[in-house]
Design brief:
It is a single chain. This protein is an alpha/beta fold and 691 residues long. It has 4 domains: 1-171, DHBP synthase (Alpha-Beta Complex), CATH 3.90.870; 175-345, DHBP synthase, CATH 3.90.870.10; 379-484, Nucleotidyltransferase, domain 5 (2-Layer Sandwich), CATH 3.30.420.360; 549-689, Tetracycline Repressor, domain 2. The protein is built from 21 helices and 26 strands. Strands 4, 5, 6, 7, 8, 9, 10, 11, 12, 13, 14 and 15 form a 12-stranded mixed sheet that branches. A 5-stranded mixed sheet has the order 18-17-16-19-20. It has a 4-stranded mixed sheet with strand order 21-22-23-26. Helix 16 (561-572) crosses helix 21 (664-677) and helix 19 packs across helix 20. It starts with 5 loop residues before the first helix and ends in a 14-residue tail after the last helix.
Length: 691
């Protein structure tokens, strides 16, 4: 209920019902004390629950009689902040309909103001410096409200009552535009729009960090951005002014239209064959038929999108491989090497956040899948109402526990006083800058929660930065550190989400967990990634796995699908002309010698299996970004499915010498046989000729 207008809602409801008392926002939630008889109290409670603000989430509530006190009116009391917080952290909210209307209304005093907000929209988590959420504990603290804004802020009947982000052009946040030589420009917004329309690249400060923007219909602008960012193939996210403009370029399904809440996420959707906007699709998403799109989530982004009049690339403002930049000084120092100018403002960002990414599963189910959980979702994690609250066996839910995650797509989870916080997406922890950002975010959370955890949980991989950090913190804080196998953690997450840890007792029927992944450190010291587990209610056991194949060259293997293909070809006992052509004679000889050595690590990874099949089919030899091979394989499979459906797929009977292993070698053998025999369309393989 932090920063969603809950206290003024309570005040207005109390006025309507003629109740006297007070409402207060404290470090453990909202407290309301009022005079009423039993019937009046019950009616008040019922209306509170039924009519609560749309952005609020009530996770628990109670009503009880206390010692009698008499009140002469109903008041909103200032928040208390001395106790240890026991609160949900509110995510950032997208621009609401009322503020959007005012933003474009020439008669409104906030017309064209790039930082218009109210209690129904605007930044929350990204500007919070302490709890509970009040202006003095946000980065809005330096801005003193003008008389007009103060009147709104003090009036419980106004939608900007206690809106901690309240400001206007007279008293509020100021834009500035810096060019490539470091000089400040006049008319920053209009000049920035002129630059975008003329093909220049702009770094603009969003809610959670900087975005790199350019005209997505301009070939030269796109090529320049790719060259400067050293990003040859990875798709760019796109910013559209509204759904009408987006539908000219994308084939939107009904659920994608209803999910178009600007604050929530980028959405992955299918590109039209001929985009109406003139979008340069081959430069925006090379080799792909899907694009990641967003609608304006903040007033500044709204003004840029509408003013440009065409779709814009809107990708994270960073050096490739590093976290999103959110400090102004660093943006001017590092992003001016990529952008032609920096559009900044003087409201600080307390904690950076990338955009979230959402897609829908295909076919009839159309399940919403969050690919990247960040701005608009982080950091509070709430289970679905149908899901029972879970509890790990023999561990009190009140005990604070911190899990530091793995290394790819990193995030951490903190269970604190019965609440669960899942940090925003923090990037790949192989770079020093991302490691620094990870620790910064962790320190920020600790400052908000004002406690250290009682237990740390880390991945079993000894070389992960997050694992090493957890062990160091465990030593410094004097708390236990629990190591968890990577794929068992994946399985446990799904079990927890569905309430299977609630009782901690043996189940009548065991649960099968199928975990297909890239790589993870296995309990046997090998590289796992194609696992089948059993859960009996208390313990997880490995039941089966894919047939192992040789794991070569560490991190080089996932970056080069041809290496996975080489290892799989050796397992299957095949020699593919398609494969040998992907290596020089010197490389081929070197890798054959490596494969002949004894003592190689083995992997069951389905991620590497997918990579290898991609190379065997000639779709990709060397990746330029993480996940590229899998995306191309998925796209080829989807083309077949859309053309033929699943009923026409070939069914094979695969024999294996061990009944508990998925026969990796036999699968690969059939793929190569079909490729070599140029199978007919009913068998689906000709889709792979579209390379």
């Amino acid at each position: 209920m932090q920063g969603v207008g809950f206290r003024p809602f309570v005040w207005r409801l109390a006025q309507d019902l003629g109740l006297n008392g007070w409402v207060n926002n404290t470090t453990d939630g909202v407290h309301i004390l009022f005079n009423a008889d039993d019937a009046g109290a019950t009616a008040f409670e019922k209306k509170l629950l039924e009519q609560a603000p749309g952005l609020s989430v009530i996770t628990s509530h109670s009503l009880q009689k206390v010692e009698k006190q008499d009140f002469s009116d109903f008041q909103i009391i200032h928040s208390a902040s001395d106790a240890t917080p026991d609160l949900l952290l509110t995510p950032d909210f997208g621009l609401c309909a009322d503020c959007r209307t005012e933003l474009h209304d020439p008669a409104n005093r906030r017309f064209g103001y790039p930082f218009i907000t109210c209690t129904n929209c605007g930044p929350r988590f990204s500007i919070a410096t302490g709890l509970p959420y009040d202006r003095e504990r946000t980065t809005m603290q330096p801005f003193t409200q003008c008389p007009d804004c103060q009147v709104e802020y003090d009036n419980p009947a106004n939608r900007r009552y206690f809106s901690q982000t309240n400001s206007c052009p007279t008293c509020g946040i100021q834009l500035k535009l810096i060019n490539s030589t470091g000089n400040r420009q006049a008319d920053p917004l209009d000049t920035a729009l002129d630059w975008l329309r003329s093909g220049k690249i702009l770094a603009a400060k969003g809610i959670g960090g900087y975005l790199l923007l350019c005209d997505a219909t301009n070939v030269q602008a796109l090529e320049t951005l790719r060259n400067r960012k050293h990003r040859p193939d990875k798709p760019f996210a796109l910013l559209y002014a509204d759904s009408d403009q987006l539908e000219g370029d994308a084939l939107l399904q009904p659920d994608e239209k209803t999910a178009a809440k600007p604050a929530s996420a980028n959405r992955v959707t299918t590109l039209r064959e001929t985009p109406a906007s003139g979008l340069c699709a081959t430069l925006v998403a090379p080799g792909l038929t899907q694009i990641g799109v967003m609608l304006p989530y903040a007033p500044l982004i709204e003004l840029l999108a509408r003013g440009a009049g065409r779709p814009l690339v809107a990708t994270s403002g960073n050096i490739s491989g590093s976290p999103i930049i959110f400090e102004d000084e660093k943006a001017q120092k590092e992003l001016l090497g990529i952008a032609d100018g920096v559009l900044a403002h003087n409201r600080a960002i307390a904690i950076p956040q990338d955009d979230s990414v959402l897609r829908f599963s295909p076919a009839h189910r159309r399940q919403a899948i969050i690919l990247r959980r960040s701005r608009g979702y982080a950091p509070t994690f709430l289970f679905a109402k149908k899901t029972p609250q879970y509890q790990y066996p023999n561990i009190p839910i009140s005990q604070s526990k911190l899990a530091l995650g793995a290394t790819m797509k990193s995030a951490f989870a903190w269970q604190h006083r019965g609440n669960l916080y899942l940090s925003q997406y923090l990037g790949e922890l192989g770079s020093f800058d991302t490691q620094q950002a990870f620790e910064y975010c962790l320190d920020h959370f600790q400052g908000l929660l004002r406690e250290k955890p009682a237990q740390l949980i880390v991945d079993k991989h000894p070389d992960y930065f997050s694992t090493q950090l957890g062990k160091r913190l465990g030593h410094e804080w004097g708390i236990p550190v629990l190591e968890v196998q990577h794929h068992e953690a994946h399985f446990a997450a799904v079990l927890a989400e569905n309430g299977y840890f609630k009782t901690g007792k043996k189940l009548e029927k065991q649960v099968l967990g199928v975990i297909w992944d890239g790589t993870g450190y296995g309990n046997d010291g090998q590289v796992w990634g194609g696992e089948f587990f059993r859960f009996d209610g208390t313990d997880i056991a490995r039941a089966a796995h894919f047939e192992p194949f040789d794991f070569l060259l560490g991190d080089k293997m996932p970056r080069e699908p041809r290496i996975s293909a080489l290892s799989l070809a050796r397992l299957a006992g095949i020699l593919s002309a398609q494969l040998t052509a992907q290596f020089s004679p010197q490389e081929w000889d070197l890798y054959q010698k490596m494969l002949s050595r004894s003592g190689l690590l083995h992997t069951t990874s389905v991620g590497r299996l997918f990579d290898g099949v991609v190379a065997l089919l000639g779709l990709l030899s060397v990746s330029t970004y993480e996940g590229q091979a899998a995306m191309l394989l998925e796209q080829a499979a989807m083309r077949f499915f859309q053309k033929n459906g699943l009923h026409s797929a070939t069914a094979y009977t695969l024999e294996t010498p061990h009944p508990t292993l998925a026969p990796t070698g036999a699968l690969v053998q059939h793929v190569v046989d079909d490729w070599n025999s140029n199978a007919d369309t009913e068998r689906g393989l000709p889709v792979f000729t579209e390379r």
